[in-house]
Structures are given as C-alpha cells and as structure tokens.
UniProtKB/TrEMBL annotation, chain A:
Full protein name: Dihydroorotase
NCBIfam families per UniProt: PRK07627.1, pyrC_multi
Pfam families for this protein: Amidohydro_3, DHOase
Molecular function as annotated in GO: allantoinase activity; dihydroorotase activity; metal ion binding
Alphabetized UniProt keyword annotations: Pyrimidine biosynthesis, Zinc
Domain Dihydroorotase catalytic: 50-236
Domain Amidohydrolase positions: 341-422
InterPro entries linked: Amidohydro_3 (IPR013108), DHOase (IPR004722), DHOase/Allantoinase_Hydrolase (IPR050138), DHOase_cat (IPR024403), Metal-dep_hydrolase_composite (IPR011059), Metal_Hydrolase (IPR032466)
Cellular component terms per the entry's GO annotation: cytoplasm
Domain of life: Bacteria
A GO biological-process term: purine nucleobase catabolic process
UniProtKB/TrEMBL annotation, chain B:
CDD domains: PRTases_typeI
Keyword list, A-Z: Glycosyltransferase, Transferase
Matches recorded under Pfam families: Pribosyltran
Superkingdom per UniProt: Bacteria
Keyword Membrane: no
SUPFAM superfamilies assigned to the protein according to its UniProt record, in alphabetical order: PRTase-like
Protein name per UniProt: Pyrimidine operon attenuation protein/uracil phosphoribosyltransferase
Domain Phosphoribosyltransferase: from-to ranges: 6-137
Species annotation: Plasticicumulans lactativorans
Taxonomic path: Bacteria, Pseudomonadati, Pseudomonadota, Gammaproteobacteria, Candidatus Competibacteraceae
The keyword Flavoprotein appears for this protein: no
GO MF annotation terms: glycosyltransferase activity
InterPro entries per the UniProt record, alphabetical: PRTase-like, PRTase_dom, PyrR_bifunctional
UniProt cross-references to NCBIfam families, sorted A to Z: PRK05205.1-1
TrEMBL record, chain C:
Catalytic activity, EC: 2.1.3.2
Binding-site residues for L-aspartate, renumbered to this chain: K95, R181, R236
Record keywords: Pyrimidine biosynthesis, Transferase
Biological pathway: Pyrimidine metabolism; UMP biosynthesis via de novo pathway; (S)-dihydroorotate from bicarbonate: step 2/3
Protein name: Aspartate carbamoyltransferase
Name of the gene: pyrB
Occurrences of domain Aspartate/ornithine carbamoyltransferase carbamoyl-P binding (ranges): 15-159
KW Chaperone (keyword) present: no
Length: 427, 165, 326
C-alpha cells in the first residue's frame, strides 16, 4: 500500500523535524519526506492539513490482561484501543497469568497480537521464576523468544542477593532490566500515599520511603553489576532526584512515569474514589511538580499509560479492597498534550516522551520517521477536544478518574507498518 | 383578641367540677410541650395544687413521624413523680384532631398506670379525627377553613388566629 | 468533594450518618439534644418509644463486635423497630460473595436502615452510595476511618459533665491514634464543637503521618500531654499490636502511656476519664482509674444507647419525609 500524508505538521523529534512536511509511505516504510520517490503513485492520500503527523506512540507499560484475566480485557480489544489512540507499540510486563517466564507465553502473546494486527506488542520476560523472587527465570531463552527486557513487574524481589544475581545474569545476556521500586514491607498493606489524605480517611499508607528505599538498593546493585536498567513508574520527588544523580554519575539508568501521576495527586482520592487507587500511589502536589520537572529535564525519558483495565466489579468495593490501576490508553495523548498546555515542556519534547524516548529505552528502531523507518504513524487533530465518557473510551476498562474530563487531541489516523489500522470516521 | 386570663378561669372552674365529679384527689398536672406546660402552670396556681408539673414532648410518639421527620427542637419528657395510681390532668393548649392527645396518652402509659386521666384544654377548635373529648375546656372556637389558632408565650400568653398561606 | 454531601439531603438534613467530617455544629447539637431527651427512656416502666414502629433496621456486621452491635440493637428496639442482625464476618463474604451482593440481598428484604460495621475504611460510605434512596445508612465503624456514633456519645458524655462550652476544654486522646476510627471521629467532633485544644498522645509508631493536619497538638510524653486537661480519652490497644514492630511490649506501653491515678494528677482535678471499650486493664489504664471516681466509662455505654436512638430517629425521619412537609 502506497500512502501519501500531505499538508500536516510533521513532528519527528528523532530527526529534529517540526514543520510542514509531506510523508510518503510504501511497503510499510517511509520512502519520502516532502518529495515522493520517482514514480510514486499513492493508492491512498490522507489530507493532514491542520493536523500533526508524528511517529506512532510507544507505551512502556500496558497490561492487556491476556492471558489470565480475559474478563477484564483481551489483546484484541486493547490493541484496538491502542490504535484508536495513536499507540503503535505496547510493552507488556511479565505479570500475566501464567507469568511470562516461559517462551510459550511469549509465543502466545505474539500470536494473539499478530492475529489482531492493531499494534506491535512487545513482552518483558520475568526476572525470577513465577515473579516469586526466589529462582532466576530462563532469561536467555526468553530473550531468544523475543522479550525486549526482563523485570519482576510489581512483585518486589525481597532478597537483595537474588536481585543481585538476577541483575548479573541479565547483564551477561545484554538484557535491560525493568524495575519498579517498591519495598516489600513498607508498601505491603498500603493503598494510598502515607500523608494527609491517608491520615484523614484512615487508609493504610505507602510512604515515599517504600519507593526510595527500594530504589536506593536497586541503584547500588545496578552500579555494581553494570546492568542496563530502566526504572518504571516513579511517584516521588525524592526518587526523581536519586535517578537524576545516578544518571549524572553515569549509571546506565533511564526512567519513566505514568501520565496520571503527572496530573493527579493524593487529594484526587476525594471521598474514597477507587478509580484513583493506583500503585505506586498518587502522592503530594510537590511530588507531582517534581515529576513534571523531571519529565521536562529528560530525567524521565518516557511517559507511559501504565494501562490497567479492570472490569467494573474490581472497583466496586471500599477503597482499600479494590484492585489498583487506571485504564490509561485513552488518555495518554490527551494528558501528554495537557503538559504542553500547562507549560511543562514544548510540544516536540512532549511528543518525544511518548515516541523517541521510550524507543531509546527499548533499544528498538521505532519512534522515528526518517527515510527507511517502519511507518508507524499517528495523525491527530490538536485542536479537537475529546470528552471522556464510558461511551467514548476505546479500552474495555472504564476505570479512570478522568471520566468527565475533556482532553485536547483527537487521533484521526493510525498507521502500523504502513497499514491504516485506525481512521476516524468522517475525518 | 381573647382575654386569656378569663379563659383560664373558665378552664379552672370546669376542671374543678370535673375533679369533684370524679372524686379525684391529689391530681398530678402534666402539660404537653410547650403551650400545654404554660397552661398547666397557670392551672396549678388557680387550683392551688402542690408538687411539680410533668412535661411531655410527644415527638417520638407522633403517628406522622415518618412523614414529617424529627423536630430538631425536641425537649426531654420529664415526669418528676410516680404516675402509678395517680389521677392525672393532661393539659394542652389547643384540641384539634385529637392525635396529639392520643400520642400523649400513649406516652403517659409508658411511664406507669394512672388511676385516671382528665383532659383539660384551653381551646377546643373542633375537627376531631379520633374519639377523644376534653373533660374541661376554656373556650370553643369555630375556625374558618384554612385558619389556625396558636398560643404564644409564656409571657404574655397570647392566642392568635392565622390564615394558612 | 465535600464529605458531608452524601450524608445530607438537598435541604442539608442528615439522611445517613457516615462521618463527622463536613457536618455543621448545628447537626451535632441536634443529635446531642435529641439524645439528651432520650436518656430518660430507660428509667420508665416501658423502656420503649413507638417512633420506628413498623421499620426494619438491619445490622450488617462485617467485622465482629459485641458491644457496638448490642447497643445499636437495643437502640433500635427501644424505638420499636424490628431488628435484623447479620454477622457477615462469619457468613457470606467468606463464601466469595461481594459486598455489594450482600447489600443487595439484605436490601431485598425491605429494610429501612443499615447499620454497617466493616474492617475497610470507606465501607459505610460505599454502601450509602449504592443503596436504594430510601435506606438510611449508619456507620458503626469503618476500618480506621470513622466511628461517628461513638464520637457523639463521647461528646454527650463530655457535655453532661463539662457543659456546652467546648471551646474552654482541653482534651487529650491517648493511645493508638493510627488505627483508631474513634480518635478520628472524636477529633472532628471536638473541632466542629469549637474545642481548640485537642491533643493526641502516643509514640510515633501509633500516630498517622501529618496527624497535625487533623487539627491536634501532638505529644509523645504522657505527662506533658495530660497537663491541665479536662477530659482524657483513652484508646484501646489491639492485642496483636502490643508487641512487635509498633511497640516492644505491653509492659513498656503501660509504663509509658498507661493511665494511673498518679499520672492523672497533672490533669485538672475534675478531669473525667473515658474509654470506648473494651478495656485492657493494666495495659491502657490501671484498674484503679477504670473503677475510680473520675471514670465515666459506664456512662458512655448508657449514653451510647441514647445517641444511637437519636441518630436513628433523625436519619429515618429525614429519609422518609420530603422537607416541605415539615
């Protein structure tokens, strides 16, 4: 399929492009910018005037709930939702059921994703078998099967010795380790930031130290083992400062934050709003400001959706008994553009946090639209607003505290390897 | 508009006769909160009765409780004497449907079993919905439809007729 | 979101009783006055009022509790309501039924009021958001969050001893503030009633973070915390918290925070001592204090019945009546 996308504002941070450029695509790749290659006759033309054309978004953490929790969502429906939202690459953490500690699970996910055909789905292998933190997983085999990295999802590796060995082993095989720091004891029973709101509502708290204590240990081991590591879903100002210092000291560490942590804080729990129950928890306004500053400075190289779709029942209980997590695919672009509107960072930088940044973390050739690049493309109308209601959400999970919000940015076209996987009706 | 003191005199005389007819000695006065209590105090002076006056707040006994809800200004009922075997004079300001009297009688019997109960009211305005009659009345008043009579006080006591909006 | 919004109707009248937070002073005064008028009922020949005749009150206890359950039961019965007590702690939820399913089932039995005790903070409010509109929900304790009827019976006990001028009082709350819904509700109630000198006394391990933001002064030393106070509210220390990572031992806790006659000497001579019960004698307080002249602990129990009767009649009255009739 030969496609011409004309008249749009092309933002491609990897090549420093931000301006009016036409894009020509053939055989799944970018074949021309501004001018088509000789003899190019488009089979389809997309008029992108007034719109922004950019690389398809790369989401470093999205749970698709398959295998194991198909009552919440499936790979087919969530990748479809991703396409609807301009997301072309999704990274699935290892905490599926069964856990991604066997190559068969990697295969299964790949097959399902290919059958659906809406997005590239990449997997993280388990760091320890069953995520139990006791025995190393077969990381080399998992890498062979296609895992882009290894991690223990939200299950902490309690034993520092096991973690050290796991990092050494991952390093031996050139695997990037994905860690979400959470102290297994400090955070064990909590469901909200250990601050004013938890005190008032009588919720068990998760102190900042649950993140920083674990992060301190992780950084010490990263330094010693020399493993390439990515710290996912930071929630506190202190942790941002620690990561920035580690980076300044030359440690091979990158980090990300969820889009919702950049817009919400503990006060958004309100009166026990279970949709604001997330792990790590929403923290103070000061923490939120520090996370924003770290996104602006590049300490946090990526913004992810931390997509965790749930069935309605999962949130129908008293706050602490509900399952944590926000359905985030539908808000990744809108919340990222909101950062621009609120002066946190310029548009091209913001786009970089959901394209080039995460591509760099993964070490994959994606998130850029140079000549020859795989044509994963998102076209969106930056002026159109989207009202978030249960009806307009594309994800099967309706668990989001942003219901009722109106966010800027409406995706009109998503291309996956040169194929149109989403086109807005009438756009 | 009404000479209250004269009405209370009339009521006191009627009550004296009713007590005599019933041969009720050493009666106890119980006023229904709040107007009934004011009248009971005047009656105590006029009949020269010793002992304290009991007060009843019938909020918890109203048959329309679940329709109109709780009056936030509810006061405690207080019967500072033993009712058992006593002759009780139940005093209210206005007798209308009889529902207040029904509630007050119920409450009295939750305190004990009196020898008898006499009902004394300052004004009987008619309009009964229950088989209840006063033993002593200060005045009978006929009201036009939509009119309401109300006692205000305690000093001075005043009866006013209001048009309901 | 205003915490009061769900428990008040459009006219600002109480239709559920879930938390003290967000209520106005007049709401609390109305409860106290109504309770005051109900304290005499127990001395009558017939200890019963016909107020809630024909109404059904369901006690939903997802967490076991003898005392609170019996006083709610007695309060409902003294108002002539029919009472259904369901100990769910040992029944359906262990069979995997969801909280909402349980509620829907009891709802189908045509109840007019739910009295809810649950181990999770926010449970009563959650139920109130999901029940049919004519059902009143009373919070009989939800996790660490709130125990508003306990707070009101504490306020009634204080008012009966110290008069209505809460602004002149110094009140110390001693013990496990962190896990205590009683402490949270007492703090809110005292603040709403104008008491500006509320102290919490506990080691750091038993205090929530940023406890000062609740409107209290923090003391770690009992003698300093008790100085010149008019009221001492002792909290219960759960047995499993007596030794471990929160406290080294029950003995050391008693040494540091146990209330004895000697330690009470720094309080005002007419100070009263309260405890929500059940008491661990020799852990939270000495028997001599429990049974001593300044203890008003049994009065609290008695007042608890009147307060629960008051809250039941106020909320059920408001639930079933459109305000314009009143």
């Amino acid at each position: 399929m030969r496609i011409a996308i004309r008249g749009g504002r092309l933002i491609d941070p990897a090549h420093g492009r931000d301006g009016r450029h036409d894009l020509y695509i053939a055989e799944g790749r970018v074949v021309g910018i501004d001018a088509p290659p000789g003899g190019f006759v488009p089979e389809r033309s997309i008029d992108a005037s007034g719109r922004i054309v950019c690389p398809g978004f790369i989401d470093l953490c999205a749970r698709l709930r398959e295998p194991g929790a198909e009552h919440k969502a499936t790979i087919a429906c969530e990748t479809h939702a991703a396409a609807r939202n301009g997301i072309t690459t999704l990274v699935v953490p290892a905490d599926t059921d069964p856990v991604i500690d066997e190559t068969a699970v990697v295969e299964l996910i790949r097959r399902r994703a290919e059958a659906a055909g809406f997005a590239h789905v990449l997997t993280l292998g388990a760091l320890t078998r069953g995520l139990k933190g006791e025995h190393l997983a077969e990381m080399a085999a998992l890498k062979e099967a296609g895992c882009v990295g290894v991690g223990n999802a939200l299950a902490p590796v309690a034993s520092t010795l096991v973690l050290r060995r796991a990092l050494e082993y991952a390093a031996s095989h050139g695997l990037t380790v994905f860690l979400t720091p959470l102290d297994p004891w400090l955070g064990a029973t909590g469901c909200a930031h250990d601050g004013q709101i938890a005190a008032r509502l009588g919720l068990a708290g998760i102190p900042v130290a649950a993140e920083t204590a674990a992060l301190g240990r992780d950084l010490a081991l990263i330094e010693e083992t020399g493993v390439r590591a990515h710290i996912g879903r930071l929630s506190s100002a202190r942790a941002c400062a620690m990561v920035a210092r580690a980076q300044a000291e030359g440690l091979p560490v990158t980090a990300d934050v969820s889009a919702h942590h950049l817009h919400l804080c503990e006060q958004d729990i309100g009166r026990f709003d279970a949709n604001a129950h997330v792990l790590p928890p929403l923290r103070t306004l000061r923490d939120r400001e520090a996370l924003r500053a770290a996104v602006a400075s590049g300490t946090l190289l990526a913004v992810c959706s931390d997509h965790q779709p749930h069935e309605a029942d999962a949130k129908l209980d008293p706050f602490g008994l509900t399952e944590p997590g926000i359905s985030g695919l539908d808000t990744l672009l809108g919340l990222t553009l909101k950062l621009v509107d609120e002066g946190v960072l310029p548009l091209a930088e913001a786009i970089a946090r959901i394209t080039r940044g995460p591509a760099g973390v993964l070490g994959i050739d994606a998130g850029q639209l140079g000549i020859g690049a795989v044509a994963d493309v998102c076209v969106f109308d930056p002026e159109r607003h989207r009202a978030l209601t249960a009806r307009t959400l594309a994800s099967r999970g309706h668990n989001t505290p942003f219901l009722g919000w109106e966010l800027r940015g409406e995706v009109t076209h998503t291309l996956l390897a040169g194929r149109v996987v989403y086109a807005h009706e009438g756009a | 508009m009404h000479d209250i003191e004269r009405l209370i005199d009339t009521l006191a005389n009627a009550l004296r006769a009713a007590l005599a007819a019933r041969a009720a000695s050493a009666p106890a006065l119980v006023g229904v909160h709040t107007g009934g209590v004011w009248i009971a105090e005047r009656l105590r002076e006029r009949l020269d009765l010793p002992g304290p006056i009991g007060t009843l707040d019938i909020s918890f006994y109203r048959d329309d409780f679940t329709r109109v809800g709780m009056n936030p200004q509810v006061r405690p009922s207080h019967l500072p004497f033993d009712l058992e075997g006593r002759h009780v004079i139940l005093v209210d300001d206005v007798l209308h449907t009889g529902r207040t009297t029904r509630a007050a009688l119920n409450e009295i019997f939750d305190y004990g079993r009196p020898a008898s109960v006499l009902l004394a009211v300052l004004v009987d305005r008619g309009g009964r919905e229950l088989p209840i009659a006063a033993d002593a009345v200060g005045a009978h008043v006929d009201l036009a439809p939509g009119e309401n009579i109300k006692l205000t006080g305690p000093d001075p006591l005043k009866l006013t007729i209001q048009k309901r909006p | 979101m205003n915490p009061a919004s769900i428990q008040l109707d459009a006219q600002g009248r109480l239709k559920h009783f879930l938390t003290i937070e967000g209520l106005k002073r007049q709401h609390l005064i109305d409860i106290l006055d109504t309770a005051e008028s109900l304290t005499g009922v127990a001395e009558r020949r017939v200890k019963k009022l016909p107020t809630l005749r024909g109404k059904t009150v369901a006690n939903l206890f997802f967490e076991s509790s003898t005392r609170t359950r019996t006083t709610f039961e007695l309060a409902a019965k003294r108002l002539s309501a029919d009472v259904l007590t369901v100990n769910i702690a040992t029944s359906s939820t262990s069979k995997g039924e969801t909280l909402l399913d349980t509620v829907r089932n009891i709802e189908a039995m045509q109840c007019d009021m739910f009295v809810v005790r649950h181990a999770a903070s926010g449970a009563a409010e959650f139920i109130a958001r999901h029940v049919r509109p004519h059902i009143a929900v009373l919070n009989a304790g939800d996790g660490r969050h709130a125990h508003p009827t306990q707070a009101m019976l504490d306020m009634l006990t204080i008012r009966r001893h110290k008069g209505p001028a809460f602004q002149d009082l110094r009140v110390a709350i001693v013990g496990d503030i962190l896990h205590s819904r009683v402490a949270r509700s007492d703090i809110h109630a005292l603040n709403v009633l104008g008491c500006a000198n509320v102290r919490v006394v506990a080691p750091r391990t038993l205090l929530p973070p940023e406890v000062g933001t609740l409107g209290v002064q923090v003391f770690h030393d009992l003698d300093q915390g008790l100085r010149d106070v008019d009221v001492v509210i002792m909290l219960r220390l759960q047995r499993e918290r007596m030794s471990g990572a929160l406290l080294p031992s029950a003995q050391e806790y008693y040494q540091q925070y146990g209330l004895t006659e000697e330690r009470l000497a720094v309080a005002r001579p007419d100070a009263i001592v309260m405890h929500p019960g059940p008491i661990n004698r020799g852990v939270e307080m000495a028997s001599a204090v429990v049974d001593g002249p300044r203890s008003v602990i049994l009065e609290q129990v008695t007042n608890g019945i009147a307060v629960r009767m008051a809250v039941m009649s106020i909320t059920l009255g408001n639930q079933s009546s459109p305000a314009e009739d009143a």
